[in-house]
Write a structure and sequence with these properties.
The complex is a heterodimer. Chain A is mainly alpha-helical. Chain A has one domain. In chain A, 70% of the residues lie in helices and 5% in strands. A two-stranded antiparallel sheet of chain A has the order 1-2. A two-stranded antiparallel ribbon of chain A has the order 3-4. In chain A, helix 2 crosses helix 4, helix 5 runs antiparallel to helix 8 and helix 5 packs parallel to helix 9. The longest helix of chain A has 40 residues. Chain A is globular. The C terminus of chain A is likely disordered. The radius of gyration of chain B is 19 Å and the shape is elongated. Chain B is mostly helical. Classes of the chains: A mainly alpha, B mainly alpha. Chains A and B meet through helix 8 and helix 9 of A and helix 3 of B.
């Protein structure tokens, strides 16, 4: 079956789809092929994880349960290690484990041979990897960053206190105000960088596999196999990187909030008026 | 001269080629530096081998710029 599908790809030329295509319409809302496969994958992932969660014992039987356990353990250690206080980190473990498995399994299920060109509805492929669509990864990124911001605001104790953490000194100082604004802007680009990285990695993988299946022609599975294996690795790597980067964003905000519980910021008195006064005072005093 | 060139040569293809070539040089050098420095650190201090995960994060950050160059070729017409 796999050989047949690869042959079909090889004969029709390397078809490159970057944008999703609509396959059905429900009540005026177009359902694209990537969201259709996203729903299928979501159901499969939920069923799989519920199945595994019911069967977890002290001595697990079967490779699948151990595989899921290793993943959960790995992400748990990762998230807990990122926070200064392990108990605070423990609260956020379920969210990051869910995100990790959702991205990982979506990436891997997107590599199955029937996804892409296997089934067609009209001119467009019926199924498309969910993470190979910018809308899908943007949704994951937005959900993650909303969770990160909400948790940071709760840990900081209010939205104003959270925003206050971006300013290293008094916001009345124009320099600190400008730096703080830049920090806030940098923070807002994280949604885009998280989702674009995931989307482009998966899409490029699809394109590379399609191109090499086309070049192989009759021996398409052989030429596409090395890139398929690389993509298996890249899929796991991207899931890991997405998880650890969002963990770091949250951990930095939370750790910073716990450091500055009181008003420990630089005040106008702490900042020397000129550098000369400060050096002459402190250096001479020490020497 | 420029008019003739624009009529006879598909400049979009040249632009895309230059974009891919130029855009991928930087990340290639960057990832090479990260990998090389990681191996050097492991060579000097074998206990540093556990920081592979941290090195991969920087690979992902550097790689994004190459991916952005790749994404831009779909805009060039």
């Amino acid at each position: 079956m796999i050989v047949g599908i690869f042959k079909q790809v090889a004969e029709s030329g390397p078809s490159v789809h970057v944008a999703p295509a609509g396959v059905l319409e429900i009540g005026g809302v177009t359902i694209t092929n990537s969201i259709l496969y996203g729903w299928i994958c979501g159901l499969v992932i939920a069923a799989l994880l519920i199945f595994v969660a019911r069967r977890v014992t002290v001595k697990p039987k079967g490779g699948l349960i151990q595989f899921i356990e290793i993943g959960v353990d790995f992400i748990t250690n990762l998230v807990e290690g990122a926070f200064d206080d392990k108990k605070v980190g423990r609260k956020y473990v379920p969210f990051f484990v869910t995100i990790f498995f959702f991205i990982l399994l979506n990436n891997w299920l997107g590599l199955l041979p029937f996804v892409g060109e296997g089934f067609r509805s009209g001119e467009n492929p019926l199924l498309r990897p969910f993470t190979g669509d910018l809308n899908g990864t943007l949704a994951i990124g937005v959900v993650t960053m909303i969770m990160v911001y909400a948790a940071s605001i709760v840990e900081a104790g209010g939205p104003l206190k959270y925003i206050r953490h971006f300013f290293i000194g008094s916001p009345k100082n124009p320099l600190y105000f400008g730096i703080g604004l830049l920090e806030i802007f940098t923070d807002l680009t994280r949604v885009l960088s998280l989702s674009l990285r995931l989307f482009l990695n998966i899409t490029i993988g699809e394109i590379v596999i399609a191109v090499f299946a086309y070049l192989g022609h009759t021996v398409a599975p052989l030429t596409a196999l090395p890139f398929f294996l690389i993509e298996l690795f890249v899929a796991a790597l991207q899931a890991y990187i997405f998880t650890i980067l969002s963990t770091m964003y949250l951990a930095i905000a939370v750790n910073h909030a716990s450091e500055h519980t009181d008003d420990e910021y630089l005040t106008e008195q702490d900042v020397p008026e000129t550098i000369g006064v400060q050096t002459s005072g402190s250096v001479r005093g020490q020497v | 001269m420029v008019d003739i060139l624009a009529e006879t040569v598909n400049t979009a293809i040249i632009g895309k080629g230059l974009m891919i070539g130029g855009g991928f040089i930087g990340p290639a050098i960057g990832i090479g530096l990260i990998g090389g420095n990681y191996l050097q650190a492991v060579g000097r201090n074998p206990e540093a081998a556990k920081f592979l995960g941290q090195a991969l994060i920087f690979v992902a950050i550097v790689e994004l710029f190459g991916l952005l160059a790749f994404a831009s070729i779909f805009i060039v017409k």
